[in-house]
C-alpha cells in the first residue's frame, strides 16, 4: 500500500506510554503511512494543557502537505476533541478512537476521593468523570470524521462492577459513543490491550482508508 502523503499521529491513554502503540505503529508503517507515535506526560497536567502541548508537538513531525489522521487510545481521544474545539488542522483526515471515555467513566466518579487516585492519575484523570459539569460534557459533538471502537471484555472485574454493562473494564460501551461520529464498533477486547489486538488493528486500517469499519 502507498499512503506516503498521509500521516497518522498515535496518542496513548492516561498513565500509558507510547510503547503501548508499538504494534499499531508497525502496522500503520507497513501500510505505507508516515506514523508519529507520540509520547506525552499524561499524569502531569490538565487535559487542555496536555492536548495543546502534545498535539502541537506531534504536528511538527508531519511533512508539509500531508493529510493528518489520528489513532487514539482512551484519554488520547479526549485530547483530540479538546484540541479541535480550540484549533483547526487544515489537512485533518480521519480519527479513530479506541475505548474513549467520551461521556466520562463511572470509575472516576467512584474512586476520585480514594487516597492515591489523584497521585496516580494526575489532574487529567480527575477530569474524566461523568458529571454534567465535567470537561467532557462541554466539548460538544464531533465536527470531524471520527469512528469509535469499544471493547466488551474486562481483565478487572472489580472495576467492571462500577460501570454499566457492557464495558471494557474502564469505560462502558455507551460512554464511548460521541454525537456526530461516523461509525461505532464493539469488539470482544479489553481496555488495557485493545490497541494491540489484530482485529482492532485491521479495523483501524479499514476506517482510515474507507471511512467505515
UniProtKB/TrEMBL annotation:
Q: Which InterPro entries match?
A: AB_hydrolase_1, AB_hydrolase_fold
Q: Cross-referenced Gene3D superfamilies, in alphabetical order?
A: alpha/beta hydrolase (3.40.50.1820)
One Pfam family name is Abhydrolase_6
Q: Which GO terms describe its molecular function?
A: hydrolase activity
Keyword Isomerase attributed = no
- Is Hydrolase tagged as a keyword? yes
Q: Residue limits of the AB hydrolase-1 domain? A: 8-125
List the keywords (alphabetical): Hydrolase
The highest taxon in the source lineage is Bacteria
* Name listed for the protein in its UniProt record: Alpha/beta fold hydrolase
Organism, by scientific name, is Litoribacillus peritrichatus
